[in-house]
Specification:
Layout lengths: L3 H15 L4 E6 L38 E5 L9 E7 L2 E6 L16 H7 L13 H8 L6 H7 L8 H11 L12 H20 L40 E5 L2 E5 L7
Antiparallel strand pairs: 1-3, 2-4, 3-4, 5-6
The structure holds zinc ion (ZN).
């Protein structure tokens, strides 16, 4: 599943190029996860003001397998291209073989449709609202393992499986540690680690996983730098000990037993 950095990289790859474009046509393929909620033809003639991101939602939410392309010229629409916005500055196309993605129309973030999808999301990790002491207070309300709490996304969005594993390593916290047992100094370190990991991932173009590619078709490469993710049985880059893997909530978790304390 694409995580916040991949979605942000996608946004940056076409946001400037599509801004100000006038919509010439909209084509739909097979039904996606949720209905669009508007007659496609009514979008014709409107302008694209900008592309925003909230958590993993963009103009188009990228589901398990979706990817967005924006280009002046694209080959004819194929059977897995389920949404296409034709504008004066290029064509925005959603390619989504598994149809876990969706395109939903909302007038703004206060629109009931938007509130239903976005209203329960936690704060944005790369914006000023993500504060160490507020983060610590929120963690104190949770008894679940810290990695599960991060993945839930209702305290802070965008810390998916890879980035949770990496941030917990940088902060020296065992993924199984109960969230309410993490004191302010460790919560502050974890806060800094989340900002660092996600910031670097965006700068490096997101992680190369499955079929993710940004809207220009470039591949990210954050995975190349992983300290623990996907490194089971290999030597820890810090202490030389063996990286372990466990299952938490049906997801793989990687950690160093020596560097990360319960
Ligand atoms: Zn280690």
């Amino acid at each position: 599943m694409p995580e916040l950095p991949e979605v942000e990289v996608t946004r940056r790859s076409f946001a400037d190029r599509i801004a100000g474009a006038r919509i010439l046509g909209v084509s739909l393929g097979k039904p996606l996860r949720w209905p669009v909620g508007i007659e496609p033809a009514s979008l014709v003639g409107q302008s694209v003001k900008g592309v925003r991101r909230r958590g993993k939602y963009l103009l188009v939410h990228l589901g398990m397998s979706g990817s967005l392309l924006f280009a002046a010229d694209l080959p004819p629409r194929g059977s897995h291209d389920h949404f296409e916005l034709v504008t004066t500055q290029g064509v925005l196309r959603l390619h989504d073989p598994r149809r876990f993605g969706a395109v939903v129309h909302a007038t703004d973030l206060d629109d009931p449709v938007a509130l239903k999808l976005l209203g329960k999301l936690g704060v944005e990790p790369l914006e000023a609202g993500f504060d160490p002491s507020v983060f610590h207070r929120a963690l104190r309300q949770r008894r679940a393992p810290i990695k599960q709490v991060l993945l839930a996304g209702d305290i802070v969005v965008g810390v998916g499986n890879i980035y949770a594993s990496e941030a917990l390593f940088l902060a020296g916290i065992r993924p199984t540690t109960r969230a309410d047992r993490i004191g302010l100094p460790r919560a502050t370190r974890l806060h800094a680690a989340i900002v660092d990991v996600l910031g670097r991932a965006v700068a490096l173009g997101g992680s190369t996983l499955r079929d993710f590619s940004s809207a220009q078709g470039q591949q990210g490469y954050f995975q190349m730098e992983a300290m623990v993710y996907g490194r089971e049985g290999q030597a820890c880059r810090v202490c030389g000990g063996e990286i372990k893997a466990i299952r938490q909530g049906q997801r793989s978790t990687f950690f160093c037993p020596q560097c990360q304390r319960p």
